[in-house]
Amino acid sequence: MSRNNIKIFSGALVCEGSKLRGDITVGSGTIIHPSATVIAEAGPIVIGENCLIEEQAKIIHRVPFDQQNKENIPILMIGVHNVFEVDCTVEASKIGNNNVFEPKCFVGSRVTVTNGCTIGAGCHITEEQILNENISICGAKCQMREGLDKPAPQNLQMETLLKMLPNYHYIKKPNMKQQV
Fold first, then answer.
1. CA spacing 20 to 30 A to 112: which of 20, 90, 97, 106?
2. Angle 4-160-32 (CA atoms, 0-180°, nearest 5)?
3. pLDDT category, 3, cuts 50, 70, 90?
4. Looking at the domain assignment, is residue 179 inside a domain?
5. Mean per-residue pLDDT, 149-162
6. Residue 124 sits in a domain of what CATH number?
7. Is residue 46 part of a domain?
């Protein structure tokens, strides 16, 4: 079992109640709720700036079953301004910028999420694929549609959480200086 190596940049807000395991870097401005889970099982996870990881959301970097004996599993890079909503599970191999993972969605380890994608509530995406930019997946049959714009950043919600969460939860201290 790998040791925990959690790097939290100043400006990030990581609640003590969150479950972080493995080699994880949390970018400035990112908020991780209590009861959120981030597990770097196969290798490091780098979470970009201004991401929101809500209650019961799970981000897991695991080795795909067909690569169990291979080495050099890459770092899971998560871009900026991504939102992981309540009770989603994301195991994607790479995540770009400005994506939204809605409640109870599941994204498997063979999926690459580019930029501006929305994975709708309850949608399960497991087949190996690279999602094109600005794709929305929704409905009972996980239909794909091309969006005109990428999802808007959750700035107002993030500002509110930055003020409220420290009043009700213990916060992990940053251990890295502000990114330049």
1. 20
2. 15
3. confident
4. no
5. 88
6. 2.160.10.10
7. yes
Q: pLDDT-derived band of residue 1, with 50, 70 and 90 as boundaries?
A: very low
pLDDT exceeds cutoff 90 at 8: yes
| DSSP summary character for residue 73 | P
* Residue ranges making up the domain that contains 133: 5-172
Q: Token match 């395991």: residue?
A: 21
Q: CA–CA separation, 81 vs 57, rounded Å?
A: 16
DSSP class of residue 168 equals H
> What is the domain count for the chain?
1
Query: β-strands 106-107, 94-95: how paired?
Result: unpaired
Query: Which single residue is written with the structure tokens 């004996």?
Result: 69
Q: Is residue 63 part of a domain?
A: yes
> 């992981």: which residue's tokens?
84
